[in-house]
Design brief:
With 117 residues, the chain is mostly helical. It has a single domain, classed as Orthogonal Bundle (434 Repressor (Amino-terminal Domain)), CATH 1.10.260. Helices cover 53% and strands 3% of the residues. The protein has a two-stranded antiparallel ribbon with strand order 1-2. Strand 1 and strand 2 form a beta hairpin. Helix 1 crosses helix 5 and helix 5 packs across helix 6. The longest helix has 15 residues. It is globular and about 30 Å long.
Length: 117
């Protein structure tokens, strides 16, 4: 039975959840990461203020997330995740930044995004 991309991504997320018990996909991250987390000696809160999504994705990878899991959680493709991590693509679209913040449960203010009324 052939698997489509959606089924493959869902299977990857399930595999990650099993392999890393503290890991939860689809916006159920550890809220303390965004304030207390560090990547390469830099505060994750500062990286979020700079909207450095490449570093955010690298931070998630350091926590055991696969590129497939990051893509599934943020509504992007694995190719886009790879390009952002490698610095070949920057996330500048406000809509995409909002979606990433929402799906990863990052407080909007940390990324300089307006709160909705």
């Amino acid at each position: 039975m052939a698997m489509n991309t959606s089924t493959t991504t869902t299977a990857a997320v399930r595999a990650q959840t099993t392999r890393y018990p503290g890991w939860r996909a689809h916006g159920q991250t550890d809220p303390s990461w965004w304030i207390d987390g560090h990547l390469g000696g830099r505060s994750l809160a500062e990286l979020l203020r700079q909207r450095d999504i490449g570093s955010l994705f690298r931070f998630l990878k350091s926590r055991g997330w696969s590129q497939a899991a990051i893509a599934a959680a943020t509504g992007t493709t694995e190719n886009q995740v790879r390009a952002v991590i490698q610095g070949r693509q920057r996330v500048t679209s406000y809509d995409v930044l909002e979606r990433i913040a929402e799906r990863l449960d990052i407080p909007r203010g940390l990324m300089g995004l307006a709160y909705e009324k």
